[in-house]
Structure formats: structure tokens, C-alpha cells
Amino acid sequence: MKLKLAPGLAIKKSAIEGSGCFATAHFIGRRKIAEYSGEKISNAEANRRAGRRKLRICAINNRWSLDGSRGGNGTHYINHSCEPNAYMKILYGHILFIALRDIAPGEEITIDYESTLHSNEKRCICGAPSCRGTINKPNY
User: Fold this and answer.
1) E strands of the chain, at which residues?
2) Does residue 93 belong to any structural domain of this protein?
3) How many domains does the chain divide into?
């Protein structure tokens, strides 16, 4: 089954890791890029699936999550970066990706994952000058 991508997105090899989500259209800063899609699962099921090497699960709230690896639209390929060009916003049960600044066609779309089901020791390999070294943001 072919993946149906959100408009303006393409999946290509990423310099950060594996495949990434790239802009094929110009995205204006502070505007919506796309909505995350996937299988709606309980957070208990999300924790059960957390043993995977590649996680494509985003929490909606303290009860529900979306697993983008099942029914996703390409947004589940958005890689982590400590210097992202987008962020994730949850609004009325919808997970939206918003551009932090203008994003040109050909640019990889990235967000700071901040908090994931990954171990706090999972190393970050984003390559940004200000890389903190871990995917999850430390709780200071």
C-alpha cells in the first residue's frame, strides 16, 4: 500500500537519520505545515509498543496517542533536531506541525521532540551546533 502524503511533503533520505520529511512547497513561518495522522491507540498500548527501535508515536493527551507507522501521512518521518524549523502543537485533540520560520522547498522539516517514549539516554545525532546530545530534553 502506497503512503498518502500530506500536501507539500516528500519523504527522502535524511542527513540526520534514515528517511526524513521534506518540504516540496514553501511554508510560511507560524503557519500550519500538516496534521499528524495515524492509528489512535491508548497510552497503555503506546507504552507496550515503545520497545521498537523506530518510534512513530505521538501523545495527544494523558489517555490517547497516534501511531503514525499505521495510517500515517508522512509526518511520522519528521526527524528530531535541537535546532528545529517547526514545532508540534496539540489543539482540540489534533496534532499539528507549525513552521517556526519560513521553510523553503527542499528543506527537511524538523522538530525538537523534547519528551518521547525513548529512554532518556537515547543519543541525538542531529548535528546542530547547539545539540544537547539526547533526544529527550533533560528535566532540570
Assistant:
1) 9-13, 19-23, 32-35, 39-42, 57-59, 64-67, 79-80, 86-91, 94-99, 110-111
2) yes
3) 1
